Amino acid sequence: MRIGFDAKRIYHNFTGLGNYSRDLVSLLSKFQSKNVYLLYNPKKKKIDRLKESGNLIERLPKSKFWIFFSSLWRQGPVVKQLCKDNVQIFHGLSGEIPRGIEFTNIKSVVTIHDLIFMRYPDMYHILDRKIHLKKFLYASNQADIVIAISEQTKRDIIQFLDVDPNKIRVVYQGCHNYFKTELSEEFKNGVLNEFSLPENFILNVGTIEERKNLLSLVKAVKDLDVNLVVVGGKTPYYKVITNYIKKNNLGHKVTFLENVGIKQLVALYQLANLFVYPSIFEGFGIPIIEALFSKTPVITSKGGCFSESGGPSTVYIDALDVEALKENIEMILSDKVLVNKMTEKGFEFVQKFNDHLISENIIKIYREIL
Fold first, then answer.
1. Which of 48, 119, 253, 341 has the smallest count of CB within 10 Å of its CB?
2. If 0-12 CB within 10 Å is exposed, 13-18 middle and 19+ buried, where does residue 236 land?
């Protein structure tokens, strides 16, 4: 098969959507190597995290005009190039497919990660909501198959976009293979020294935004003898966090890290005593499975998709219940038997997100529509 992908996030996004896109095409390239995968990138890449191979081919706009208007190229004009390249299936990796593809012989698939902008509209600018809705409605209506990354996202697609359930397939996400490899003690100690971190700490990973609910975690550790390490990009919500930290003199126990390399991030997961992810809502929650692959116990939120990614050994709390979060942090950190049980069972559970299983599920969908 000749399969095309919207590669904007692959080459221009450092976080969730970019990681999903890179991981997916990489595992397809490895486990389904007989196919050709064409990556349609609107402009010269900013990120070089994808190991290209003989069946992974980057495609840029061919004319100077579309190089200049690259953002428009991927929304429709790219279809002409797809036809010339004899693409059989086009996969929009982040809720979009190009307009006009329905008038060709090219089959289309779109992955929708979440509809948080509809579930929590107050967290988004009205213009962003309108743009997202227009793109998602078009993609979900025109695509031959819609991939949801969790059962929760499937329910939201049915509820908010009114898509036929028979058109939706749930395929879970995986994570980078680095998280599945034990790093040397020497390297991990080097990371501790590089960032001047204590030997024992709780870890939180994710963009520092209101939906991720970091403030509840900071409040929970306020009166505990623990250190908190936070890895993630900053938004205006970061100011809310730092104001609380200053007011309560917590600067000595909360450390913020940005632009952490992937191998360093793996080390942080493996070094952490506990991973805490009190997000209010997610489409899936990749950091949870990164922690489980790293053999680190997890506390996350009740409801939504969290039990799908966390499994039965993870501890779940109401996202805004600071006291419950505090009590569960204390309970886990003081019980080595519990930690070992959570770690062992969590590692067993997370094997369902291994690459070869995901690649088989994706290829099954491609074959279904050809």
1. 48
2. exposed
